[in-house]
Amino acid sequence: MKYNESVRVTNDEQLLMNIVRLRYADSPVFIDLPSITSQFEISGGANFLGGYGNQFEGLANLGFGEMSARDSPTLSYRPREGKEVARTLLTPLSAELFSVVNAGANIEQLMLLTLNDVNDVGNAPQATAMTPKAPDQNVEFLRGARLLASLREREGTEILVGYEEDADGVSDPIPASEVGGADVLNAAKEGFVYRSRGDDQVALVKREKSLVLRVHREFVDSPEMRELARIFYLEPGLSLYRIKPELSQNALEAAPRAIATNDTVYLNLRSILQMMVFLSKGVCVPAEHVARNVAPNTPGPDGRPYDWTQVTAGNFFVRSQKHRPRDAEMAVFYRGYWFYIPTNDSNSRAILAILEILISLEESESRTGGPLLTIPVGD
Questions:
Q1: How many domains does the chain have?
Q2: Which one, 89, 169, 208, 260, has least CB within 10 Å?
Q3: pLDDT in tens, 26-47
């Protein structure tokens, strides 16, 4: 359990360090700990040096014994680099990952972290640039996210995961007699199914996972849902809204119909790197670093450095000070200052937990590239 806790703490500190580095427009570095091999040894010994005395005077024995134990772990470190880390950091998330809401993730925090916009309502997209040239805000977006979170807490909405098929098909009809079992299996592996088109003919149809926002009957016409529909340009009064990534092919093909009915929630999803850069705007930069322009600054409307921490306010904030903090859940030392998240800041800790889960889901299963550094550790 001590190894388990040590790995958790160092993973949290590495993620926090990389977020702080990105606030200073420095490169993030990731080092994995793929394995820990522990060898536990116990040894003992005893010596008898003889005795003296008799049955009347008492018998004294001269001797001694000893026992020792040693735990010798071997830690294997591997830096992540090349295509592996690039694919993980730069690929936009899949909308399917939004189903982690059903696993207990806070939907407001998830939306703040993963989305650039919803139906073109922006979540401070300029904040995903390491050196933004203009200030940005997400007041209206956060208002909508908090309404959705409130409805979910009251069990007014739920996100369902299902499958959707292209009604027009993707192939010309072919005789059903020409389709064998192997064809059906091969099609299923690629996400396709054969569907009847009448007259003993079938067509190959694309089958994709889809998400649906279901509004429970008593909340369909609630003030919260009407306000939510206004913010995100949705048709009020519906019990079902489709959820789709903004740049998917199906989304582009369905756009004219969706615009006419406003029944689809289009998500502009971020990559892992964009999420980390966005969170870096929640780092409190020391005043002397602002004055010396050590960290990139954006001029605000009044000409003073823009306070980017407002775009993550209430959800994520990293404090800074000269001396090591005493009440920190995690703390890293960088450029002469300690950057930390207090133990009682559950919102910031939860955001990092969500980010770590998303990184794990996006990581490639195959581990390639990078040397493996194995370090035997003493007692």
A1: 1
A2: 260
A3: 999 888 877 777 777 776 666 6
